[in-house]
From TrEMBL:
Protein name, as recorded: Zinc finger protein
Domain BTB residues, every copy: 53-122
Organism of origin: Macleaya cordata
Annotated keywords: Metal-binding, Ubl conjugation pathway, Zinc, Zinc-finger
One MF annotation (Gene Ontology) recorded for this entry: calmodulin binding
Length: 371
């Protein structure tokens, strides 16, 4: 790894089969490829006579692989067009040179065209070559198989080479896997020969990698910020529910004005939030600074009551203090209402609705248990 991937001959030769003068191969490959073809159910292979091979595939090492034009053309549109090109001599053999990759890789490629199968051993040895061949000769099924196989075999040593090939062969899934591995541990990849070669010969790809990492970091920051905001909205939504609970049913130390609080009451399910609100309410009642607007804790409760009023849909019957008063006041001052406040109200109302929906399955289970 770390060397330039030598597929130049492969990509160039794929479009120039008719102009290449190929000598007869000195190393014929004796392999019954037609026997690999899947047959319909109930058909015995021995009952079918294999047609005579009418195509010779020539490899870089001079080997000749006999094949059938009907099979090659049915799997690869590129090979179909090549085989349909007129030949100088009508009686001459159809010759398809596949150069630039090892002979055994070409044999594995042709074997896949017949059987639609590729072994793990073949993927270990020729995965990179098979990906290039699947792209050049337009074999999508093999391309997907190679993308998945190479994704599982990515290492710090080969990730740069595989990334270059994935980019060249238009394999987006494999490309993304490579980019993520590079982003996770760039320091280790920078020590490899592949990275050093990349810096010397492909600065545009190096820039592309760095831009991907920068965008990934920005996405992560945006996601973290969004998660924090959603957590805040859920907390405020829970606080709204606790306010209704405190002033409707009462909790351990604070309750409606027409109900005596009792310390024997069991804590509610959201007691952590409820307890904090009860402490805040008791402070609000006793605080002397709030008259002059100098108490931050009282301001916080005031804002929570105002937020509840903005969300509440039954202000006429609501028992939370000042709910109706805030509602009337908002009706008068609607024109001057802060846009950020309206956004907060929408987000908290949405979080409250989502929380209610998520709790429905639990309620149904509880009702079923009672029955």
């Amino acid at each position: 790894m770390g060397k330039k991937i030598g597929f130049d001959r492969l990509f160039v030769s794929s479009g120039a089969f008719c102009s290449i003068n190929v000598e007869p191969a000195s190393k014929p490959v004796g392999y019954d490829l037609y026997a690999l073809r899947p047959l319909p159910n109930g058909v015995n292979k021995s009952s079918i006579e294999a047609p005579v091979a009418d195509v010779r595939i020539i490899t870089s090492g001079g080997s000749s692989i006999p094949a059938h034009s009907s099979v090659l053309g049915s799997v690869s549109t590129v090979l179909e067009k090549i085989l349909d090109r007129p030949r100088k001599h009508r009686s001459s053999d159809k010759i398809v040179p596949i150069l630039g990759v090892p002979c055994d890789a070409v044999l594995s490629f042709v074997r896949f065209l017949y059987s639609s199968r590729c072994t793990e051993e073949e993927m270990d040895k020729y995965g990179i070559h098979l990906l290039a061949l699947s792209h050049v000769y337009s074999v999508p099924q093999l391309k997907q198989r190679c993308s998945r196989g190479l994704s599982k075999r990515l290492t710090m040593e080969n990730v740069v080479d595989v990334l270059q090939l994935a980019r060249l062969c238009d394999a987006p899934d494999l490309y993304l896997k490579c980019m993520k591995l590079l982003s996770d541990d760039l320091n280790a990849v920078e020590q490899t020969e592949g990275w050093k070669f990349l810096q010397d010969h492909d600065p545009l790809l190096e820039l592309e990698i760095l831009q991907f990492m920068d965008e990934a970091e920005s996405r992560q920051k945006r996601m973290s910020k969004k998660i924090e905001e959603q957590s805040l909205y859920l907390q405020l939504s829970e606080a709204m529910e606790c306010l209704e609970h405190i002033f409707t049913e009462g909790c351990t130390s604070v309750g409606p004005c027409d109900m005596e609080p009792t310390m024997n009451r069991a804590p509610c399910k959201k007691f952590c939030t409820c307890q904090g609100l009860q402490v805040l309410i008791r402070h609000f009642v006793q605080c002397k600074k709030r008259v002059n607007g100098g108490c931050s804790r009282c301001k916080r409760l005031w804002q929570l009551l105002q937020l509840h009023s903005s969300i509440c849909e039954k202000s006429d019957k609501c028992r939370v203090p000042l709910c109706r008063d805030f509602k009337l006041r908002m009706g008068v001052d609607r024109k001057g209402e802060d846009g950020r406040w309206k956004l907060l109200v929408r987000k908290v109302a949405s979080a409250k609705a989502m929380s209610s929906l998520s709790s429905l399955p639990n309620r149904r289970v509880a009702m079923s248990a009672r029955k």
